[in-house]
Amino acid sequence: MNRTDVGEAITRAHHEQWARVVAALARRFGDLDIAEEAAAEAFATAVARWPADGVPPNPGGWLTTTATRKAIDRIRREHRRDDKQREAQMVHDDDPPEPLGAVDDERLRLIFTCCHPALAMETRVALTLRMVGGLTMPEIARAFLVQETTMAQRITRAKAKIKAAGIPYRVPSAEDLPARVSGVLAVLFLVFNEGYLATGPDSDPVRHDLTAEAIRLTRLVRALLPQDGEVAGLLALMLLTEARRTARVSSTGELVSLDQQDRGAWDAALVAEGHRLVRERLAAGKPPGRYQVLAAINAVHTSARDVRDTDWSQVVALYDQLVRLDPSPIVALNRAVAVAELDGPEVALAAVDRLEGTLAGYHAFHATRADLLRRLGRSQESRAAYDAAIGLAGNTAEIAYLTRRRDQLG
After folding, report:
1. What three-state secondary structure class fits 287?
2. Where is this region: Disordered (predicted)?
3. What local confidence, expressed as pLDDT, does residue 51 receive?
4. Looking at the predicted structure, is the pLDDT value of residue 91 above 60?
5. Fewer Cβ in 10 A, N or C end of the chain?
6. How would you classify residue 285: left for phi > 0, otherwise alpha for psi between -120 and 50, otherwise beta?
């Protein structure tokens, strides 16, 4: 196996095994700092040794064993005066395994642990993205539209609070699940979004490993809480979005916008499953939550055989409903995109310009303005907006798309 193959194996192992390793260590040692640092050291050791020794037959087992040894070494250094009995228990690990509870997936158990109600919602999401999703600090900061240092401080404080408050690393009971689910869904949504349109300039533009893992975990939550409308809504949203994945990036590595995608390349089975979930929630007759409305919007898009068949009035009406549930500037921006199709680009641009104070650092704000200005024939202003979007975007496929659109202005 050459160095390139080994590098790909390490990258794949990080995508597939990071959460498993961290979860195993967090459960055993009860300390997120130890779990994260030991996991990182294990992967660094793999980078150093696998090119010479070869990739082990069981990379996950090798990484977990190596990380466990790293954690034990650290604890020994920090607690040299501890009694020998504790050290022996730590080395031999003869304690019986924790009995499985309502959640029998290791990574999902860690998500529920990180989403403890003692932590603020944003902190729960950020911490879990780091510990379970394996996202880097810059990726998480971009997801929250904050500075990297700010996000690092939040995560550090969260881990310290878990340790100081003695929040247990245990499987949540069935009655605990509903209280934890909103934070869990927020985490899974952001993990999926990072895979759907990766923000890192050094990563693949679409990370199927993240979207697939988010869908897998959401299916588990759905099995645990089959009557929860928002769980069903999030799963439907993910499926309808994932169905378009293979049509979203061209053979040359450029993002393909929804109106230009080959709809025949969409995954019909995922579309059908997503539509079925949306219909089930409509039939339930209960007021929908945020994820259910987002799923309904995607159902309208994926119901149209051609972009010209899209029912834009229904899309705008659904966005009006979503704004009442989630009056965020990003929702308002997405609503303006739909308004442009219904009422024209001039009306939409006025709505977008009102968001500049809150979204000036968000690349999609500038990309949306650029497109609206182009449609209005204001080429010079459109070019400047494209330049701003390109400067802020981290996704290589999106940068390629924006660059071509800008250069077409002449």
Report:
1. coil
2. 78-99
3. 92
4. no
5. C
6. left
User: Could you tell me how far CA 228 lies from the centroid of its own chain?
Assistant: 21
Per the DSSP assignment, residues forming a β-bridge with 255 are 249
Distance CA 50, CA 6 (A): 7
The pLDDT score that the predictor gives to residue 98 is: 44
CB 203, CB 142: distance < 8 Å: no
| CA 221/CA 211 separation, integer angstroms | 15
Cα 142 from Cα 330, distance rounded (Å):
13
166: three-class secondary structure by DSSP: coil
Angle between helices 59-78 and 32-53 (to 10 degrees): 130
CB 141 within 8 A of CB 147: yes
Please report which residue ranges of 344-378 form alpha helices under DSSP H: 345-353, 356-359, 363-375
Would you state the pLDDT for residue 297?
A: 98
Mean pLDDT of the chain: 87
**Tokens standing for 247?**
């049509």
Token pair for 317: 């009406």
Give every CB contact of residue 71 below 8 A, 6+ residues apart in sequence. Answer: 25, 28, 29, 34, 35, 38
Q: What is the pLDDT of residue 92?
A: 45
Taking the mean position of all CA atoms in its chain, how far away is CA 17?
16
CA–CA distance, 116 with 98 (Å, rounded to integer): 19
CA 235 to chain CA centroid, Å, is 13
Q: Half-sphere exposure (CA, 13 Å, Cβ side) for 262?
A: 8
Q: Does the pLDDT at position 50 exceed 80?
A: yes
Torsion of CA 167, 169, 173, 175, to 10 degrees: 30
Question: With 80 as the cut, is the pLDDT of residue 224 above it?
Answer: yes
Q: What 3-state class would DSSP assign to 249?
A: strand
Q: Which residue has the tokens 């597939």?
A: 16
Residue type, 365: F
Say whether pLDDT at 371 is over 70: yes
Q: Is residue 176 predicted with pLDDT exceeding 80?
A: no
